Structures are given as C-alpha cells and as structure tokens.
TrEMBL record, chains A, B:
Positions annotated to bind a 1,2-diacyl-sn-glycero-3-phospho-(1D-myo-inositol-4,5-bisphosphate): 280, 282, 321
Taxonomy, superkingdom: Eukaryota
Any one Gene Ontology cellular component term annotated for this protein: plasma membrane
Biased composition (Acidic residues): 156-166
Keyword Transcription regulation annotated: no
Protein name per its UniProtKB record: Sorting nexin
Main localisation: membrane
Length: 589, 589
C-alpha cells in the first residue's frame, strides 16, 4: 500500500538538484522514505518524481504498514507487552497526562512540574536589547533565532534539516549496505528512519507511560542486567574500572549524488581499541535515537547538540560541530550504563561493514526499550517506601529545575558579556589606542626638540591599547566559550530531566491509584504489590542517575571554572604586562 | 549720571533674598554695581530696589562716565596710546577683522584659521548616544549641558553665575575694604567690575588690534622688562632659578548677607613664603581678569576652569573646584612671565588687608596691558624676517589646532570609556558574579555529599566578580580622571591660542599693508620700519610662549601617561591576583 503525504509548505526545487517543486495542500505519494539527510523521494499527481524536504510534508497519520499490536519487532518502543490487558491503559489515562503534556509542550519542558512563572523560558535571549549588534565572532548569536536554513518551514520545530547532506547512492564505505539495510527494514514497516519520522509527527510516542513496566505479567528475559549498588552517596550504577573515552577528530568532506550533496565524516577513536571508526552525523543521530529509545525513561540522553550550531564559514561550523560531538560522546562514554550498552559499543568498535550492518539491525530490533529498561535494573538494596520514593522524586525535580534556571542565567549573562567583549569594548580600546596615536602624530609636528621620547612612548601606548582591544575580542574564545559550552551542555541535559522524572512521577501516581484499581478489579492485589516494588526499582534507577549526574556536575563545574579562571588570570596578567611595558617608555626626566 | 540697564530675561526674586523681580524689556537704574558674585543692585521704575543677576541685564552701551581717550588710567586695555593719530585706526579696520571674528565667533575659536570643517566643535559630546545613561559617578556628564543653574538666562554665554555667592556687606577680612575699593573705582568710572561687564557685552574690547603697539610713537616707560633669550630650542622666556609653586587647600565655608549667601574660601600657600593667604573664587576670577588683560595678547591665559564644574553633592563640587583651581594655579606658577608679575605675586603673598587693597588698586590701574605688553618684551636676538615670522605663526596655528582636535578626541573616547566603566561594564560583572553565586546556591540544595568544596569555590568566584565590578567602577577616578583633567586643561589652554595667535596674525597683516599705508601717507616710512621690528618682537614672544607650551606639554603628557598606565597596571594586576585566588579554590581532585 502506497504511503501518502500532505504538503505543509510550498517548496521550490533547486535546478539540477533532483528536487521536486510542491505546493501547500498537495498530496504526494512517497516513493522512497530512505533518502536520509532530511529528504524524502515522492511523486506528485502529475507523475513527477523528486526529492522533497521531510519537514515540508506530513505523512498520513494512519501508517498502513504499522502492525496493530502484540507482534514482536513491530513497535520497539512499546516493548514486550506480553499478555497485559491493554484495557488497563484507559484507567491510566488521566495519570499519564503529565508525560504527554511534557512531550507536547516542547517549549517549556518544566511547565508541568513547576509553578515558577519565570522558569524555563528562553526569553532572556530574545529580550536582549543589544541582540542585533552581535559581531561575527559570536557563535551564540544564532541560538535564539532558530535554524538559519533559508527555506526552513515556519513550523518545523523538530528540524531534521542539516548542512550535512546525505547521500542517495552510497559513495563507498558502509553507507551502501546501510541503504540496503533501510530498504530491508522498510519491508518490515518499522525501520529506524520511518520511526524517527513518526516520532517527529507524534511527539511522545515512544515515551509510553510506566504502566507497561509496572504491570507487565513477566519481565523480559533480557540478558542485560543493570545492577545498582549502595555507594557512599547512595544508590549508584555499576562503574567500570577503566572509563571509556573517545576522540572525535579529523573531519573529512565527502560528496555524493554526483557531487550535488556533500557530507562530513568524522573519525572516532575509543581508548579501548585505539582503532578509529568513521561516522557521519546521521550515524550519531541514529545512535542518539537508539539510546533515547532504550534508556530515555531512566537516563537523560541529551540531544545531539548540533542542530542549532551555525558558523559563518563552513570550517567554523565543522569545527564547532566536531567539538560538540566530542562533548556529547565524552558524556556518553562517561555514563556507565550507556557506555556499556551493546549499541554504543557497536558504534565505537564495529569491525567492518558487515559487523556494523548486523549490529545496527539488531539494535533496531531491541525490545528492552522505553520503560522496559527498568526491567533490567537490579537494585541490591531492599525496596523503598513509596513516600520516600516520592520525596526523592520531588527533590530531584526541584533541583534540576533550579539548576536549569541557574544555568540559563549564566548563559544569558555570558551571552551578553560575549557580545560586549567582542563588540563595543574592543572598539573602545581601539579608539583609545587611536586617540593616543593621533595625539602622538600631532606632537611629532611640533618642531620642538626632544619630542621623540614622548611621541614614541605615546605611539607605543596607543598600539598597546590596540593590542588590548584584540586581546579583549579574542578572550571569550579562550575562556567564556568553554564556560558557555559546558552550561549549554547542561542546559540540554537538564532539558531531558522533565521527561525522565515525568516517567517516574507517572509511576508514583499509578501506585497511588492502585487501591482504586484493585477496588474496581482493574488490577489484582498482587499487581499492586508488584507495582510498588517496581516503582522502588525505578526510584533506585533515578537516584543512581542523579548521583551520577551530581558527580559529573561537580567534576565538570570545577573543571570549567578552573579553566575559565586560569585563562582570565592569564588575560589580565598579559594586559598588565603590556601596560607595564608601555609605562616604562614615558619619562619625566 | 545714573547708569541705566535693560532687562534681557525675566527674573523672579527668591523670597527673603533681597532680590528684585524684573521683566524682559524693563529699564532699571543701577544703584550698586559692586555687589559681586554675579549680582547687581538696581531700582525699577516703581522705586523698588533689589538684587538682579548681572547676566540678566544689559548695561547701556554708551557708558557715560567712560573717558573719550588719551587720559591715563581711564582705559587700561587701550594702554598708553600717546600721541598716536587715532584716524589710522580706520585704515586698519579690514585687517583687524580676524581678531573681531574670533571674539564674536565664540563657539568655534578655530574657524578663522582653519579650513578643517570638523575641527573645534564640541559636537562629539552632544552626539554621544549613551549620553543620557550616565551614572552619578561621572563628573564629565555635565560638561556638554552648560551651566546647571536652574534659572540661568538662555543666552547667557559668559556666565558669571556661580554656586559661590558673594557678599553684599563684608563679613570680615579684606572683603570690606574691597567693597570700598570698588566704590572708589566706580567714581573713576573704569574699575574692574564694570570693566568686566563691558568686556562681556563688547567682546574683544580689550583685545585691541596690534596697531596700538605697532604704531605707538614711543613705548611706555614701564619698569617691567620681559627679556627673551635664545635657548637650545629657540627663543625662551627668562626662567627663574626656583620654580614658584603653591598649594590650594583647606576650603572653608563662610556665609554673609545674614546667612543668605554662602561662599567658600580657599587657602593658598606659595613655596616662596610658605605663608598661607586666603582667597575666594571671586578673587581668583579677579586675578584671571587681570592676567588676561595684561598678558592675554602674548600668553594664553586659560579660563578659570570651574564655571562648568558641578557635583551632585556640595562636597564633590568643592573638591573638584579646588582640584581645578590647584591645576590652574600650578600652571600660572609654572609660567615665568605670569608667576613673576606683580599682580600674581600680590595674589600669593599679600601681607595684610591694606597691602592687598593697595596692590589691587595698583593692578587695576596698570597701563601695560593688552597689546602694550609687547612693549616690555626685549629679545636678545636680531630682528626676524617678516616671512619667517609668518611661517612660525602659521606653524603654531596649525599645531595648536591639530592638538586641539587630538585632545578633544581623547576627551570624547575617554568620556565614553568613563561611562562604560562606571555604567554597563560593572553591572555586567555584577551579574556574572550573581549568576555564579546563584548557581552555587542551587548546588547547595543537591543533597549530594562532597558538594561544599565546589559551592564554596563558586560562591568565592562570584564574590570575586562582584569585587571586580567595583574595581572597574572605581578605576576611572584613579586614572582616567587625571588623563581627562589634563586633557581638559589643555583643551582650555588651546582654546586661548586662537586669540593670542590672532593678535599676532593681525600684526603680520598690518606689516603687509605697510607699503600701501606709506603710499597713502597714513604712516611714515619710519613707521613701517618700526612696525616690522615690533612684529619681530611679537614673534619672539610667540615663539618663547610656544616653546614654553611645548616644554610643559611634554612634561605634562609624560607625567599623566605615567600615572595613567601605572594605575592601569595596578588595576589589571589586582584583578589577576583576585582571580588567581578564586581559581585556587576549585579542584578536580
């Protein structure tokens, strides 16, 4: 059955680029959904076939090839529901609302949990009155303005668009088999790419309510085990002896579609094998989706940070993206659960094309995803009292919300400081420098003897202030940049907590309703006991995750503040030294 | 014969202050011109008598008691014209135009000499877009806005108004005899105060064209001799072995008119006698007028700098005025001709009331004023060729104009920098400091063990940035202030050069016209020779003055740049040390 789509926005094809001009409201027939890079191949009513931006169309909501329920491998995010009576879902509908709200209220993920009206909004960025004066040295300037692609659709919130074009035909490497991969999966009707699309169109689809886990009759027989130990700080994940790490480097430009589209391939070298593997951005994105599906209910998986990164020049953009991909990979490597997962290991250490292909297919068929990840968690301690579970949850919610505010405040003042340091401030030092030099020039025309010492000194002082202007303008890249990057990363990470905490909170609410459900015979008394036990497990997972977060946070902030202050000290000392040198040239005889 | 005056602007008397309400266009009879402090006592047509601001009225232009010509002591600025045929003046009328232009075109004293259209204007101050945001720590902010007195007349360019009120009746000290003094002089019809008024109303009156000197039949038999030697740098004044200096200190508030008006008295201690004398601002002003009358044609006498100084608080105002009076006195002390003059010595070293009174009267009757000061100048070298005289003059004109531009540029950028350093910049550092501290506060709520080291360090870093904010805000008072003061002083000094150079230029023009004057029998061939010789003397004086200026300039700029850079070095080093301290508190274990 042919998949149809509605055109949401007008799109004019670029000549010679194999694109298809479409009009808003037009109906298209999808001919190939596996183009990648934000493109879909479609045919219009006149029979013309060409590429259309994925975000410009809306696939028909009732995806015909999507299986109804119950069969394996069809809906990975729903997981192994087993013989659960799905009518129970109705009873949970009100309780699971927060999770849905979170997902749909994308602009303010904190709105469900918090009453603080000032929180969570990015309005500080937009209200900055100097916003338009930003110089071209400010990588943050594009943040509030959304994606800069010229022909981005007005409502395309979850933008798949990217500077990195994907290939239609593979140009070598493992991309060819990958395309085959997609074709194979399309036959199954639930492959990665279409899944991503359905995620985009039906927000929250994969974030099923925790009832799936809380009430499933028997837990999946997964070989995966995620033990939680009691550490000094409380529940902790199992940490490996040597921490996984990797280096993202050596971005290389490739092209495909007969040179029409180009892409960047990065080299990733893990410290375990020390053997580099190559990945394009779309593979990072694939990994992100897998991790989100698999761990998202228990572990905040930060988005790939690059969607909004732009650079005025391609090199700048590539460098920035690589730096942020490195940051993302480092964070993932540091996570004991994520780094130890099969899909993450596959990404870092696949041996060859076949290995990658097999692993990829396997990962996409993984059933222990969504809330079912909790079924693999094995706390060593005894079950927690539901009241304690709730208190912990509230505490984490408050903390992450407050930290989100704090981080955003730093980003706001940092952004303003960046603009001042790269804009008006160096201009002013330059003008001071010029004024000294101009006065010096005047003095040289005095015709008075013994003028040279002063004019030389005054010129040197003027040049010093011009140098200071440059130091001031360049400094943010040396220190503020890292402070901003770290806080930006934390902003992204903290933005995942409402979802993670939301799943937890929904679980707590379910347990609270257990008595009512028992009374109405929706669940058995044994189900209620099981639910309480499982919510305790969820709480251990959340606590382990929070402790992981805190430990990383303390390290990260110590590190970035050290770096920031170290560079600031150097900066001020350099200026002082330059001025001391300038001072020494003046003399009052 | 009673002196009449027209009221220029409406003025409403302040109750109980002995003032007289007057209307624009009203005719008043002056009953006492010697009130001082910018006040004049007058009677209206209804017979009411009271004080009226001097600048709100215009004295009748034909001052009836003013002697026609030729008599001694009557017109000090005209000097001893002797038996000069005054009809010669007519012949000079066109040539003396520049001098008149200069005086009347007060807003742009450079307009006569220069073609650069950007020069000489203060528009930079006014066009500053941030001008309205100035904080209260900015002593420059009032500069472009003119005198802040609330009821200043709209056209009162030469404002005598002052925060320091003068007494009607002396409250002790030498002020009583001073009033008597004025009364005595009024009888003579040409005393200092009325002279000042006439100067205000007839700009350029005392700056008679150089023909008075160039053509007078015999030079005044003044005991004063101002030799000019040939130094290494060219013609130089005769410098004393020890340089005169004085300290202006210890401002004391007094009051008079039954407490209605108050004044500040300063203590001035010269290094020669080491014996303090007291003077009020009006005495400085009297001295300034004497020096301007006497030396203004040859030596730029900078205005008392205080007219436009304001402070938000009286203390700030008094401190600033004292600092600038000190600067003015120091400059006068450093000038070999000024400091050695009888009137200046009187000001600094009068022994008692009687001494002051006698000296004052004598100074006011001094006939060697205006261009006649050149008659006392005795160059040791041979006469200069008129071409060389003209070249020198042009050079000085160009230089002083160019330096005026350079100085104004520094004042403009300095002013902007001042505003940034006292306004937005410290606010930003404060916000950075607050953001760090806020994040630290959030971190303390984590409930995670081992948080304290980071939160303490982060709080300390935040406080450090708040301290930096304060350092930044206070710094301009420590360095930029002096750079601005020096340049402001030079701006004032340079503003006098057009007049001084103007007299010289007019002299040169006269000499150029000499042949024509001889041909039309306006002057004799001998007169022409005399004129050339006297212009040469004028040139020696101008060169000596320029060399004096250059020498002082080199010293002043070296000194102020040393001070500025020294404080800047300290500033940056202090910040670096504070940040190093903050840095040391972070740890990555």
């Amino acid at each position: 059955m042919a998949l149809k789509a509605q055109v949401l926005y007008d799109f004019t094809a670029e000549a010679g680029n194999n694109e298809l001009t479409v009009k808003e409201g037009e109906t298209l027939t999808i001919t190939n959904q596996n183009i990648g890079g934000g493109w879909i191949e479609a045919r219009n009513s006149r029979g013309d076939v060409g590429l259309v931006p994925e975000d410009y169309i809306e696939l028909n909501k009732a995806i015909p090839s999507f299986p109804a329920s119950g069969t394996t491998a069809a809906t990975p995010s729903v997981g192994n529901v087993g013989n659960l009576d799905l009518s129970v879902f109705d009873a949970f509908a009100p309780a699971s609302a927060p999770t849905q709200n979170q997902a749909s209220n994308g602009n303010d993920p904190w709105s469900v949990w918090n009453t603080d009206p000032s929180g969570g909004s990015n309005s500080n960025w937009a209200s900055n009155p100097e916003g338009t004066q930003t110089g071209n040295t400010d990588p943050w300037s594009s943040v509030p303005h959304g994606h800069p692609q010229a022909y981005q659709g007005p409502g395309a919130e979850d933008d798949e668009w990217d500077d990195e074009w994907d290939d239609m035909k593979s140009s070598g490497g493992y991309t060819e088999s990958e395309t085959g991969d997609g074709g194979a999966m399309q036959r199954g009707g639930a492959h990665a790419t279409s899944m991503k699309i359905s995620l985009n169109k039906f927000p929250g689809f994969s974030k099923s309510g925790p009832e799936l886990y809380l009430l499933c009759k028997q837990l999946a027989k997964s070989k995966e085990k995620l033990p939680i130990y009691m550490g000094e700080v409380g529940p902790v994940w199992s940490y490996p002896e040597t921490q996984l790490d990797c280096v993202v480097a050596d971005p290389k430009k490739g092209s495909k579609m007969y040179g029409l589209k180009s892409y960047i391939e990065y080299q990733i070298t893990p410290n375990t094998t020390n053997r580099p593997v190559n990945h394009r951005y779309k593979h990072f994105d694939w990994l992100y989706e897998r991790l989100l599906d698999k761990f998202g209910s228990a572990i905040p998986i930060p988005s790939l940070p690059d969607k909004q990164v732009t650079g005025r020049f391609e090199e700048e953009f590539i460098k920035m993206r690589m730096e942020r991909l490195q940051g993302w990979m480092t964070r993932m490597c540091r996570h004991p659960v994520v780094s130890n997962s099969e899909v993450f290991q596959l990404f870092l250490t696949y041996k060859d094309e076949k290995d990658w292909k097999t692993g990829k297919r396997k990962a996409e068929k993984d059933e222990t995803v969504g809330v079912m990840i909790f079924s693999t968690i094995e706390p060593e301690s005894s079950d927690l009292d539901p009241t304690e579970v709730e208190q912990k949850c509230e505490q984490f919610s408050r903390f992450t919300k407050a930290m989100d505010d704090g981080v955003k405040e730093i980003l706001t003042v940092g952004h303003e400081h960046w603009k001042r340091c790269t804009g008006p401030l160096p201009k002013e030092y330059q003008r001071i420098g010029k004024a000294f030099q101009n006065l010096s020039s005047v003095f040289t025309t005095s015709g008075y003897q013994g003028e040279a010492t002063l004019t030389d000194a005054l010129t040197a002082a003027g040049k010093t202030y011009e140098e200071i202007a440059q130091l001031v303008a360049e400094q943010p890249r040396k220190d503020l940049h890292f402070l901003m990057e770290t806080n930006n990363e934390y902003k992204g990470l903290l933005g995942c907590f409402p979802d993670t905490i939301g799943v937890h909170k929904a679980g707590i609410d379910k347990v609270k309703e257990a008595d009512k459900l028992v009374a109405t015979s929706k669940i058995t008394p044994q189900d209620k006991v099981t639910m309480a036990k499982r919510v305790s497990t969820m709480s251990y997972a959340l606590q382990a995750e929070m402790n992981h977060f805190h430990s990383n946070r303390i390290y990260d902030y110590n590190r970035v503040m050290q770096l920031y202050l170290e560079e600031q000290v150097k900066f001020y000392e350099t200026i002082a030294a330059k001025l001391r040198q300038a001072h020494s040239q003046f003399t009052t005889m």
